Amino acid sequence: MKVPLSFAPKDKIIARLKQDPAIDRETAITLPRMSFEYLGAYYNGDRKLPKINRYVRKGDDADHVFTQFVPVAYDFNFRLYVYAKNTEDNLKIVEQILPFFTPDYTPTVHLIPEINLTIDIPISLKSVYPEDNYEGDFTADRRAQIWTLDFNLQGYLYGPVIEKPLIKFVVTNFYTDTANTGDVVDRLTIQPGLTANGEPTSNSVLSIDPHLIWFDDDWGVVKTTTIAPNT
Predict the structure, then answer these.
(1) pTM for the complete prediction?
(2) Residue 74 pairs with which residues in a beta bridge?
(3) Distance between CA atoms of 175 and 191, rounded to whole angstroms?
(4) CATH 3.30.450.20 given to domain 5-163
(5) Can you tell me the distance from the alpha carbon of 12 to that of 116, in angstroms, rounded to the nearest whole number?
(6) What is the secondary structure of 131-194 as a DSSP string?
(7) Which of 1, 21, 22, 132 is the most buried (most CB within 10 A)?
């Protein structure tokens, strides 16, 4: 049978169970049932990544890219409650959950579509313990056996994705004096080089237009030196 799962703390479910001890009303909660709650997030410095690293993906054209700084590592804690009227029902549910955690279950998640980011997110099962919530008269009060499972999700928090122009040309001027105030003697230009067949090249004559070269192409480096006319 399918067991319902809802977002609710344990105290809320227990309160609803006690409101109808004889199970006479149609609004009574049907057991077995599961609920979960979010307990909090904690920064994890052990999984910290270098701040200056970025994710990069192709932009809408060859002169732009989508970039995003690496995320901040956080651990997110969740708690799952399994409710049943007897031990057998509870065990049948719990035994279908525990084998997937050894002690981690690692799904592959497609997180950021803009940069096509897919990573593995480990989810650890930290503890499992039962509780028999049975108080009062045997005939009037409703019994609920509860199993509590604590999980830790090793997630990340991401910043914005930014589309930026791609730097393809680097120009360096060489001057006649060290103060960079005189006439330009030489000008060195560095740009990507790629033939029409997709081969890297350092020859500007054989290269296609640099504006048509994508950042992830296998391009070469073209160096061009221009001598000023007045030298």
Answers:
(1) 0.66
(2) 43, 155
(3) 21
(4) no
(5) 40
(6) EEE--S-TTTSPPEEEEEEEEEEEEEE----EEEEPP--EEEEEESSTTS-S-EEEEEEEEEEB
(7) 21
Tell me the pairing of strands 54-58 and 64-69. Answer: antiparallel
Q: How confident is the model at residue 151, as a pLDDT? A: 96
Rounded Cα–Cα distance for residues 53 and 113 (Å):
19
Domain regions of the chain by residue span: 5-163, 168-227
For residue 97, what are its two tokens? 């959950």
Q: What is the pLDDT of residue 122?
A: 94
Which two tokens mark 157?
């928090």
The answer on pLDDT for 231 being more than 70 is no
Condensed to tens digits (0 to 9), the pLDDT of residues 153-204 reads 999 999 898 888 888 889 888 776 655 556 667 888 899 999 999 899 988 8
List CB contacts of 2: < 8 A, sequence separation 6 or more: none
